[in-house]
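Hi all, long-time lurker, first post. I run a small reading group and we've been trying to get comfortable going from sequence to structure in the token notation. Rather than ask abstract questions, I figured I'd post a concrete chain and ask someone more experienced to write out its structure so we can walk through it together at our next meeting. Sequence below, copied exactly:
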Amino acid sequence: MGVKRWFALFGVCTFVGAVGFLHFTWTGPLHFVATRWILWLNNFTRPEVLPLWVVGSVVMALALIGAVTAMTMLNRSVLRSVGTDPGQAVNVIYSRTTLARGPRVVTVGGGTGLSNVLSGLKAYSSNLSAIVTVADDGGSSGRLREALDMIAPGDLTDCYAALSDSPVLARLLLHRFARGEGLSGHTFGNLLLATLSEEQGGLGGAMQEIHEVLNVRGAVYPATTQPATLVARLRDGQEVRGESHLADASGMGAGAIGIEEVRLEPPNLPTLGAVETAIATAELIVLGPGSLFTSIIPALLVPGIQAGIRASAAPLVYVASIMTEPGETDHLTLDDHVRMIDRHLGRVPDVILVNSAAVPAHVQARYRDAGATLITPHSQDAALMLRLRHAPMLLSGQAHHDPAKLAAALMSLLAQRRTRRRTAGEAPTASRMRYP
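-- Answer (accepted) --
Happy to help. Here is the structure in token form:
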């Protein structure tokens, strides 16, 4: 924490100050007062039993204890005045200074998957950058997009809540109004982002203010600062416009027919300079977990993000989904997911991180009733098999990733890479990670 030096300096200064004070009082204008004070102390001691230097040492020790107590109480008062529990202050300071030295990780995606991985990673680093897809056109986000011509705020709200250090603030951001004309269905976080977007003329200009207001551990950025529409071309030649229609299996039947490719309109969408900087300086780039065609790939279609990831020397890790998405990825295998990422991004993930824990039969049955099936966690492609890494990451009783286990698996991959680099004597700017 860098405070030991200041305690040492305080002790030295206290001793030197005491010596200087004695010199001043013994030989200076206060000589008479000092003499009378010492003689007064003699009334309570017997010099032949308790020498004066012992009495002086005790007095100085008591003075030092008083000074430290005063400093402690002063600090407690300051901490209370800014809303920090003094009992947790040391832990908070230690945590923040340690996390500030954590790895620079960029996560790309949206939905519940991205917020889950962020909530796990924030225990290892505060150098996190979440790049969030903003093509959602359904629910609260869709209503705000249509009314205010803004980017979809829903996934941004989830990520801000995941990175928040305040459980109360996280709960408030995710609070969804159940009543009220015009309010019903909206979350408080979506309305907050809509307000800032309206005030600043777009969320792009409000990013710094948002991070300061919410005091999140890391940074959250939209993939693009302009509204975009997701367009999917199916294998039979049909086109589906809008994310909400693509995800509706009972509507267009996109998953049953098969999605050939997706694109964003307009195509040449801008991205923030901070996003490009985060990608360029990243030590690890994580795709997913999340919906392939509506959370992960849309963010990769923004030209600045796509070019940055393709040029980055950081390892690219794809966290594979556990279950298919009804109406979206029906019948797609793990290999199909990876090939779709390569097709739209132009780079194959260096590592494909797959859950190795068995999904209970009753959980599979519950998902099967909703139209989702288990994605086989194996590859039929010899080249892709070399990139597979398995780890138990299942959330108990669910077919979702456990945030803590997923974050631990990602940090383990990064630690292994660093160890190999040190062993091989590679420079920190070595080329992309390749696993034998």
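A couple of things your group might point at:
DSSP finds 19 helices and ten strands in the chain.
The first strand starts at residue 105 and ends at 109.
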